[in-house]
From TrEMBL:
Annotated signal sequence range: 1-21
Single Gene Ontology MF annotation: serine-type carboxypeptidase activity
Phylogenetic placement of the source organism: Bacteria, Pseudomonadati, Bacteroidota, Chitinophagia, Chitinophagales
Gene3D superfamilies, per the entry: alpha/beta hydrolase
Cited InterPro entries: AB_hydrolase_fold, Peptidase_S10
Native source species: Chitinophaga pinensis (strain ATCC 43595 / DSM 2588 / LMG 13176 / NBRC 15968 / NCIMB 11800 / UQM 2034)
Sorted UniProt keywords: Carboxypeptidase, Hydrolase, Protease, Signal
Name the UniProt record assigns to this protein: Peptidase S10 serine carboxypeptidase
Gene Ontology biological process terms from the UniProt entry: proteolysis
Length: 503
């Protein structure tokens, strides 16, 4: 029996779906309440020029429900789906399924910043400009793949059907993976995309999500992928406590210090890609063993290692020694430009901030995140309402209430390894920004090494670095390079016709 609470929502969804079936470009009227039409769609037609080629496409903005074990709707998950119009046979057309992270953020960042056909107005380095708005993305991967951007529950326009639906259904590592796998099954079935080569791409916490989904889709939905892309990956449940955690961030410190010209002259005059291998080798071969010694490290070794850490981080040697050779990222962001009166950004250390006082051990705010929110928030509001004609009074959650988040039993790195081992067609691409201090590039390399400790899968694993931060695509040069690398990865991960999946 349908409850009195659910019935109006179901009817709203059914009425809306029927209306859009009559005309694909019908505009939604703003809802008199902030309730999501849980099964809805608005379809509009567009075109974009990508790498000199005209690409006509449809854009679908809407919501598809997720259900409980009894078939009752629990929530509506909002999505936008871009499908190239002039491709008749979809069986060989790749489908890219895209997520962002948080875990409380929608897919807005990659949709209008990276791979989608329309991107926000920013300058060439990724800083906000006015007037806010949108422009065509000549680098989009829509020329070679259709893309769906998915907003998990309580992000973007996605919502539970009622406040009494338990958050435990959605808000946790494994709950998130389970319901989103079910949703992907529904989407692929509705859109007739079972034959298509399929790729998952996630950014930040989205990398935890898609790593777990790779195996969940295989085991629970019998859906097999061709590729997984991790953009600025998290730790994926791979243990690195103690000396590892302390040491692995040093190459990121070096990259940031190099950008701000805080390294010694002999290092500063080298290109970044000449400096980093030296620091990586020191980190693995000398710093980790030294930190493992703890208090047993003799004074001469401690002084020698501290001097090297200071040299490679741009920090004063006394700061390194006072922190037992382990400077926290918070202190690094505060200390590096302290003499100039600035802090550096967490997610992108090219950004500078200004604190209330020069003293202290951590910045007052994340300089990069406030800049990104200033640029992205008006752009997505304008885009969804005015270009995709999705009209609603719902608040678009750039950061939604998804806490407490259950982080227990995070085995997503191992799950990804199993998925790759079990499926000979499955390939992995990792993309990192050198100036990302939240999900730093060397930790991403370490995770990839630990995914394949036996070295048996390495011909299907690839890492790439870019000279920007967490959202490396906001820098114009990296937008072009990262999309082109994605394009090549997708096409190279599709087997030749008739090729069997076997070892």
């Amino acid at each position: 029996m349908i409850s009195k609470i659910l019935l109006p929502l179901l009817l709203a969804g059914a009425m809306f779906t029927q209306a859009t079936a009559q005309t694909s470009e019908a505009q939604m009227k703003p809802s008199p309440s902030r309730l999501l039409a849980i099964d809805s769609a608005v379809v509009t037609r567009h075109e974009v020029t990508i790498k000199g080629q005209r690409v006509p496409y449809t854009a679908t903005a809407g919501s598809i429900p997720i259900w409980d074990e009894e078939g009752k709707p629990l929530a509506g998950v909002f999505y936008t789906y871009y499908e190239r119009e002039d491709v008749k046979d979809k069986s060989g057309r790749p489908l890219v399924i895209s997520f962002n992270g948080g875990p409380g953020t929608p897919s807005v960042w990659m949709e209008i910043g990276y791979t989608g056909p329309r991107i926000l107005n920013i300058d060439d380095e990724g800083y906000p400009v006015q007037p806010f708005g949108m422009r065509d993305n000549p680098q989009s991967i829509l020329d070679i793949a259709d893309i769906v951007y998915i907003d998990p529950v309580n992000t973007g326009y996605s919502r539970p059907v009622h406040k009494d639906v338990p958050g435990s259904k959605f808000y946790g590592v494994n709950a998130d993976i389970k319901y989103l796998a079910e949703w992907i099954n529904t989407f692929v079935t509705r859109k007739g995309r079972w034959a298509s080569p399929k790729f998952l791409i996630g950014e930040s916490y989205g990398t935890t999500r898609v790593s777990g989904l790779a195996l969940e889709l295989q085991d629970a939905q019998w859906m097999y992928l061709n590729g997984v892309v991790l953009v600025s990956p998290t730790e994926l449940g791979i243990d690195r406590n103690g000396p590892l955690d302390a040491a692995l961030k040093l190459p990121y410190f070096t990259a940031t210090a190099w950008y701000h010209k805080k390294l010694p002259a002999d290092l500063q005059q080298k290109d970044l890609n000449e400096v980093l291998p030296e620091v990586e080798n020191f980190t693995i071969n000398e710093l980790i063993p030294a930190l493992s010694r703890g208090g047993s490290l003799d004074e001469a070794q401690r002084k020698s290692i501290g001097a090297r850490v200071a040299r490679y981080s741009g920090l004063k040697e006394i700061v390194v020694q006072e922190n037992n050779l382990d400077v926290s990222t918070n202190l690094f962001w505060k200390e590096l430009l302290r003499d100039q009166g600035y802090t550096v950004g967490r997610l992108d250390s090219r950004y500078r901030g200004i604190d209330r006082q020069t003293g202290g051990t951590q910045p007052d705010y994340n300089a990069e995140l406030t800049a990104w929110l200033q640029a992205f928030t008006p752009a997505i509001q304008i885009y969804l309402r005015e270009e995709l004609n999705y009209k609603t009074d719902l608040k678009y959650n750039m950061f939604g209430p998804v806490f407490p988040w259950d982080s227990k039993d995070n085995k997503t790195g191992e799950n990804l390894r199993q998925a790759i081992a079990q499926n000979p067609f499955l390939h992995l691409l990792v993309q990192s920004g050198y100036y990302d201090g939240a999900c730093d590039y060397f930790n991403a390399k370490y995770s990839m090494w630990q995914l394949d400790p036996g070295g048996k899968l390495k011909d299907r694993l690839k890492w790439e670095g870019y000279r920007s931060g967490h959202m490396m695509y906001l820098r114009k040069d990296d937008l072009a390079a990262a999309n082109e690398n994605l394009r090549k990865f997708i096409l190279q991960s599709i087997p030749a016709k008739g090729q069997a999946a076997k070892y």
